[in-house]
Design goal:
By secondary structure, this protein is an alpha/beta fold. Helices cover 30% and strands 25% of the residues.
Length: 372
């Protein structure tokens, strides 16, 4: 068993913790933007292939304290690097530094790189190379104050890079955040699901992947764990085959629409990459023109933020959006994510739940409205 770390976005920690448990994680603990847990190789492989809510999965290999560059260098050299890497392979350093002791984060990463290279030079007379793309080993350096954690990144490119989204609209929502909104909404994956401001289609596509049990990694070509010294091809194939076997074509109606035909075209293009598993309806409709969904439906929307809201056809503000929701979405549960915290107060509807989230650098609120 290994003690593993999953990174995610602010506000998704609790739903990620539940997901990790469902994928075999034990002794799960929630912290700020991370979830830690115990798991074996199979659990690590399942998490990478099936997680909808994590950015990546890390295996911490060494913790120590350092206040100077020399202490950092010596601490890194304490690791038996030959257990993870050899001089014929390549590595790269990813880093997060929040410390008054190390004000130049790139220099801290450089000292870490030098320590690893010098370790091999001193012991074997040759050094592994440094690569910025598809390195054999990705090493995560995290420094907070004087505490240093070195981890192996089992994922590689962040898990929001699912492989289906080839075209994007203006201010697209991240795939992990979209999956997080769906998880937070507690949609049952059986009732109708609608996004009436779908943009390039990320939220409906993530909803369909969840309902159809399509693993997020089904289109992904590479994970860093494949190049680890302890990689087990048999377990990896077993994990992937088992996940694919659980895919179902029995999903409810999931639809997206947008007032801009250019966005609808992009959504249709993105979903073609998953047409072997499901087909969605993306239509060019203004929200006022929509046919009312069935009672009990779940609706999630990400309206344009700030001035872009006033540029929408027929909806100049949240008061107008609230009036439309009252008429069009009776009997449904509607969720809205926005950074316009003050403007949304004028929607004229009672908020039954609110959750604080981040959409990139923006502080957002995710609000639920039960329409009777």
């Amino acid at each position: 068993m290994m003690r593993l770390t999953a990174k995610t976005f602010h506000g998704l920690e609790d739903v990620l913790a539940e997901e990790v448990k469902s994928l075999g994680g034990k002794n799960v603990l929630v912290n700020r933007r991370v979830v830690t847990f115990d798991g074996d190789l199979k659990t690590l492989y399942r998490c990478n292939y099936e997680s909808r809510l994590a950015i990546n999965f890390l295996l911490p290999i060494h913790r120590f304290q350092a206040r100077t560059d020399d202490e950092l260098y010596e601490g890194v050299k304490q690791i038996r690097w030959e257990e993870h890497l050899d001089p014929k392979k390549s590595f790269m350093i990813q880093f997060t530094v929040r410390s008054d002791h190390f004000k130049h984060s790139q220099y801290a990463a450089l000292k870490t790189k030098d320590a690893i290279a010098d370790y091999f030079r001193d012991k074997y007379g040759e050094r592994p190379s440094v690569s910025k793309e598809r390195a054999d080993l990705i090493i995560d350096l995290n420094i907070r104050d004087n505490k240093v954690i070195l981890s192996l990144n089992s994922t590689g490119q962040p898990l929001f890079k699912r492989g289906y989204r080839h075209v994007m609209g203006e201010a697209p929502i991240n795939e992990i955040l979209a999956a997080g909104l769906i998880a937070l909404s507690e949609w049952d994956k059986k009732s109708e699901f609608l996004d009436p401001m779908c943009g390039s289609g990320t939220i409906p596509i993530e909803a369909a992947m969840a309902a159809a049990n399509v693993p997020p990694g089904v289109l992904r070509k590479f994970y860093s764990l494949i190049r680890w010294n302890n990689f087990d091809q048999r377990i990896w194939d077993e994990v992937k085959d088992s996940a694919v076997d659980r895919i179902t074509d029995r999903i409810p109606r999931i639809a997206g629409s947008d007032a801009h035909f250019g966005m609808v075209k992009k959504a249709r293009i993105n979903q073609t990459n998953l047409e072997d598993y499901f087909r969605l309806s993306f239509q060019n409709f203004n929200i006022k023109e929509l046919i009312a969904p069935d009672p009990g439906s779940t609706i999630i929307m990400n309206p344009p933020y700030g001035e872009r809201m006033s540029q929408m056809e027929g909806i100049k503000n949240y008061e107008a959006l609230g009036d439309i929701m009252k008429k069009q979405f009776k009997g449904s549960t509607v969720w809205i994510i926005t950074s316009d915290r003050e403007d949304i107060k004028h929607i004229g509807l009672k908020t039954s739940k609110r959750i604080n989230l981040k959409n990139g650098p923006l502080d957002c609120t995710f609000r639920r409205y039960d329409l009777y």
